[in-house]
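Entry:
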Amino acid sequence: MISWGEDSRNGFGLLNSNVLDSTKTDSNCVHWLQPKSEILHLFASKSVFAFIRNDGGSVSVARMREEDGRRITGKLKSSNFKEKIRSLCCGESHVVLLSEKGRLLSLGTDNISRPITIPNCRPVTQVACGDQHSIALTQDGQVFTWGLNTSGQLGLGRAVPSAASPQPLKSLSGVPLVQITAAGDHSFALSLSGSVFGWGKNAAGQLGLGDTEDRHGPVQVDCLNLKKTVLIACGEEHTAVLTKGGVVLTFGSGRYGQLGHNSFSDELRPRVVGELWGGNVTQIACGRHHTLAFVRASNKIYSFGCGEQGQLGNGVKINQSVPLPMQLPDQMNDMHVEHIYAGGNLSFGLCGLGQEFEEKSNNFRSSLKKVSNKLDMKIIDKWMSGCDSKSWKKVKKEIKQIFSSASCLNGSFLDERCDKHYQTSPNQSGLDFSLVRDAFRKLTKKDVLAEVETAVQDMLLPALYEDPVGVEGLRIYLLLPELLRVLQKQQRGADLTEAVAAAILRLHPNKLRVLGDLWTSLKPSVLTKQIGVWKKILSRILTSGDPSRSRDTGVKHLLQVLDHVYRASQKSGKTPKIPDSTFCMEEFQFNPEFLKEDLILWHSKKDVGPMPAIFCCYPFVMNLPSKINVFNIYATLMMKKNQPLTGMWPFFIAPAWFELKVKRASLVEDTFQQLSQARCSAFKRPLVVYFDEDSKQTDVYKRDFFLHLFDKLLKPDSRMFMYNDTKTLAWFPAKPTVDKTRYFLFGVLCGLALFNNNMVKLPFPFAFFKKLLNVSTSLEDLKEFSPVLAGSLQYILDFPDDDVEDMDITFSVTWNDVEAELEPEETGKLVTGANKKEFVDAYVNYVFNTSVKTVFEEFRRGFFEVCSKGVVGIFQPEELRGVMVGKENYDWEKLKQNTTYEGQYYAGHPNILAFWESFEELTEDQKKAFLLFLTGCDRVPILGMDQIRMRVQTLLNSSQQHFPEALTCHSILLLPLYSSKETLKARLVQAVGHNRGF
């Protein structure tokens, strides 16, 4: 070994004085030592020096003492232990030993060993010490800390001044860690994917967080994200990190030049040591105020920082602010440095020769990437073959070890292709899901699956921390659904699925948002399968035949998890987007009575305590028929609720309906006048329309009313709307020429049509329905209304960035004869390659939002005076459009199949055969006219032609001159008995073309 620094010339008691190297008399130079037995591991602090010999694992400890005004190494004391000691670490005055079996011992100033008990006797894999605190990493990935907590170095929060025994650091419990380290009063942990977490004292910026505020719990060092960090070393008030590419970054105190930046200033954030750039550093080490860097390829050690005790090995007692290579002893010959150490004011190097050196060096580097327990194919194969043998007991133990540890599972399936797992972030899970699926698919034997299920439910889930630091601790919530899929295929895991959902919901809201980002970062195929996991158990519960289960907590948790996934997918803006149908339980039809109860619970949820599962809160799981049922039930309940009370006097009877008495000649004026005079509460009663003082009450008049009224309102001469170039689509004007009250009343009419289950003609673009539901509009919506304008905007987006300014376009808009500035505070602002998307978004926003804000808000206000925002909100924009205006997917064969015949008619009747032959000969427009004639609407209901059930009856007392008639409220066709097909077809064409059946 080689050594340099404080009192190194005396050999630290490793050699007799007459064997000491006499070729170097200067205490500041590097000394060559040949101990009697090989040194396996050593550590030094500012007051203690300890090492492990390769003679059965004996431990020797020396403590620094004052003598003649200088510090020298005291007498070396050696101890042997029952278990072989494999590593150790020193604090200011204490030494912690780690045995081969993972047990901890403490050596105090009296050199007496005392056991350190880790809860549940967890085996320890690493230990680290600061001045007055210690850290241990267990085999299952848990971090424990104990000692003083004056600056937060235990990571247990401000309320804990000290801990006499090891305490779990829960916030790191799910992170797959490969290294822990500490010095002074601060601590660090390094994850398998290169994430760095620091806590404790930060007076000089040694945590690398950009400030000097102490941290009392682990915090991720964001500046080191994506740097591929593989090693951390801590000095008293500075820190060094090493990346996979051999780059060294330092931060913290630079008072002695220990940061290597050619200055003596502090650095609050990690900064690359420029002098080492490109040197491919393979190891780093930190003393109190100095730093070492080792380059394996050239077998060179670089030192920088405080040199007052010769700890830089440069022969002089000066501080050095840049890394310089040390002159190693001539005695090394062909030997190579195996490992470097620095601690206190000392530095060391263990050396090896040839193949032995190569093996030890490689073992050291690979150990930095190792997680104690990992699930892989070899282990699973062993479980599969061992579950029927004498080794089953051992297999069960291994299953519990791995599936009870979130950190073990989180580190088992990393995507190592091109080091992708080093890119872990809220937008990148770092997992290889092909590995996940292949591994879990191999868990086919029931005994193994049963043990896995038990370990996860009884041990893993209860131990999950609700506010894990960083992203890696959240990977477990992406992995467990993949395991649940395997369990569900074997008809297992129902209870576990509910338990996992509950665990997700226990997460801190901030972590739930990060998990939402991780969900949307998954490939659509992976996320779709995970959504199916929650839906499958939900469907199983709802179809179980036990009504009480539909309202239990487990169902609520499943719905809430689906809701979080759904909301995350809606906000992500990712393409391709997960379709809404992925979340919908298309195959499940909710019972109307259940929906009625659900709707009542939904409306009362603000007035009572904890609520059961309410499906109306999660409409994305409902299919369209169920949503329509909910709305119709709501309308019925509101109609009953808003029935007026009968007066005390027999001559005073309030109407039970909302009545409109209009004349066909003045339909619009009469309607608007009566709507403006009515109370808004009356809108929620059943609508009845009387035409021209006709006292009959029938749905025929109501449908006729909406048909003709909307036809008049949406004609260009109404002056209420503007139209696109083809005059096929309407939109709200930027400068209305009619009173804005008319838009409020138009909104009331649209609401009345929906509330009374009447489809109406609304020739508006899709943006109309998106705005009703507060869904953002886009350039795609503008393409529907104005393809030419949208094409011009798309052209700007597609134009090369460097040439956009040549187009001389400013942030202004001309729309509906109105000119406006899109950036009023910056008139004449030019469109550039950098802001062209901003310009297009602002243009679209002006067309659909800014220019129509006043009139559209009046329309919305009127619409929601009739219909509840919440209930309308259960529909998606496409669904709402379909419910309000119907569809155009005509299936005339379906109409024929669903027709029934009454009276003397039957399917094979000659008149019926002639009717269908004549119908098939009609043009498509004539068939649509027949649908209008039959139902009062020429469009198909959103649920399809199955909703139209035509009944054909004989028109009594009719002659050959009579036309067919229709009762639109019941879709009844009254068909006279004709003597020939020709007569039937002629009368049918005339009826649908002129009479309209009303």
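The radius of gyration is 40 Å.
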